[in-house]
Amino acid sequence: MLIYTIIGPVISYFIGSIPFGFIVAKLVKGIDIRQIGSGNPGATNVSRALGRPYGILVFVLDMLKGFLPVFVFDRLFSGYGHSLAIILCAIGVICGHTFPIFLGFKGGKAAATGCGVFLWLAPLQLFIAVPVWLLTVYITRYVSLGSMLSSIAMVISVILLRNDPFGQGLYLTLFSIFISVLLIIRHKANIKRLLNGTENKIGRKVSSQDSD
What we know:
Layout: H1 2-16, H2 20-29, H3 43-50, H4 52-77, H5 82-98, H6 111-121, H7 123-140, H8 143-161, H9 170-186, H10 188-196
Helix pairs in contact: 1-4, 1-5, 2-3, 2-4, 3-4, 4-5, 4-6, 5-9, 6-7, 7-8, 8-9
């Protein structure tokens, strides 16, 4: 079991570290996305800098890199300390995206990659959280607020809808709390701008104060 709880998360971390936003921006326009707008290599900043199609592309790629490690290792680790090993892989890929070794440990905010992880680990709960994001963004035009509220909705959904969330499902419950807290912490600058009324709304062109 020890081998699986080390190898899987390490590989997952390096997969999570693949900076798709940085790569797409370089290939399409030859720019360093870290020098544009918020400096964040996530899908929102890419969308503002390069256009919505490229933002969607980066979102899908970031989501896939969250989905694939937990899916593959879930198949491989079945029967080898399965639950803990898979959650550690999920943590690994999230930490890779948020603190990527290839970009000096300065990465995205985990929303898209987190969606990919939950698409395999808790799809029903994800399909509750996603409408929360859509409705929040539609009403407020704030992507950051939608991301934070949907992460909270994810925690609540996991607790209410999973069997035995504080018993056999404890690892998933703790992971959902972990990613929600991490995502909110990563949005601390956005929270300050929301409180000040200066947060950027979706649809505006990229500026030095844009958030991701």
